[in-house]
Amino acid sequence: MVDELGQATLCARLGECLECPEGMDCKGSRDLKLNLDAKTKSAALNRVEIFCSSYAYADTAACTSRVFCESHLDDMDCEHAPPELKAGFWSHSSQPLSVFKCKNELQCIGGKPTGSICASGREGRSCGFCMPNHFSNSLGQCTKCGDYDAIPAVVAMILLLLAIGVLGWQMGRKISKSSKQVI
Q1: What gap in Å lies between CA 34 and CA 64, rounded to an integer?
Q2: Gyration radius (Cα) of the chain, Å
Q3: Backbone angles phi, psi at 61, to 5 degrees
Q4: 158-167: long-range contacts (C-beta < 8 A, 24 or more apart)?
Q5: Degrees (nearest 5) of the Cα angle 62, 64, 67?
Q6: Using 50, 70 and 90 to split pLDDT, how confident is the model at 87?
Q7: Where are the beta strands (DSSP E) in the chain?
Q8: pLDDT in tens, 10-62
Q9: Which of 53, 109, 110, 121 could share a disulfide with 134, CB 3.0–4.6 Å?
């Protein structure tokens, strides 16, 4: 957020603009904007690299785009860092502050609402569904079905059809016997 002069407001610098929704981690810092076009993002990352290679940060891995944006409040490619989802919570990327609780922390792994927040093979609201051709496992993930997974279903279907056929044949015999006795 910027004021009428284009300066970052105190709210934007401190991350106190909105109450942090339940299930989110609001670090309250600044970072590069998520929706920068490729050319602008490349230029911004170059500025971050130059800043982080300066004398003050040359020997540390702690210098990130967040450190750069906190130090450069006038950089228009920076904004308030979006909150991140905690494990066990989900939100859609189009409405990142509308948070839903997941069935468990194994299904929703957390992270940036714009990234992959569902466990492997999961999709949908609150990561509640397995992707097509996947099945749920005990780790909260959904595992892709293999070709061999269809064999038990085919065998079961054949046995079921056989059982129905035998049952029908037996019932036909009984009906035929009882009709002979009546005549």
Answers
A1: 15
A2: 30
A3: -90, 0
A4: none
A5: 90
A6: very high
A7: 24-25, 30-32, 78-80, 84-85, 89-90, 100-101, 122-123, 129-130, 134-136, 142-144
A8: 444 444 456 677 888 877 677 888 778 999 999 999 988 888 887 666 656 67
A9: 121
Distance from C-alpha of 142 to C-alpha of 133, rounded to nearest angstrom: 9
Q: Count Cβ neighbours within 10 Å for each residue of 103-122 and write b for 16 or more, e otherwise.
A: eeebbbbbeebeeebbbebb
Query: How many other CB atoms are there within 10 angstroms of residue 83's CB atom?
Result: 22
* CA nearest neighbour of 51 among 64, 38, 41: 64
Are 47 and 69 in contact by the 8 Å Cβ rule? The answer is: no
Strand, coil or helix: what is 143?
strand
* CA-CA-CA-CA torsion sign (11, 17, 22, 24): negative
* Domain ranges for the chain: 1-20+27-82, 83-145, 148-182
Give the three-state DSSP class for 136.
strand
